[in-house]
């Protein structure tokens, strides 16, 4: 039996919501991975995280955090 327009709309909205929730879960997993990496970094005597850079002043972790925030800032 075909769905009436209201039922079809409800099913479509549920699919959109499920896709959005899946996207948010992936973003949360990515954020948790970044936070775990930060938690594992060396700390100074005050307990502050030491974020080092290479000879050119680049830091892969900071670049990944920046990219993550740019992609997920909604």
Short description:
The chain has 74 residues and is mostly helical.
**Sequence stretches where pLDDT stays below 50 over 5 or more residues:** none
N- and C-termini, Cα separation: 39 Å
Instruction: Determine the mean pLDDT.
Output: 89
Helix content: 55-70%
- What's the main sheet like? none
Shape: elongated
Note the run of SSEs as H and E: HH
Question: Percent of residues in beta strands?
Answer: under 5%
- Structural class by secondary-structure content: mainly alpha
Outline the structure in words.
The chain has 74 residues and is mainly α. It has one domain (5-72). The chain has 2 helices and no strands. It has helices at residues 5-39, 60-72. Helix 1 packs antiparallel against helix 2 (60-72). The model has no long low-confidence stretch (mean pLDDT 89).
Keywords:
0% strand; elongated; 74 residues; mainly alpha; 2 helices
Write the SSE topology:
Layout: H1 5-39, H2 60-72
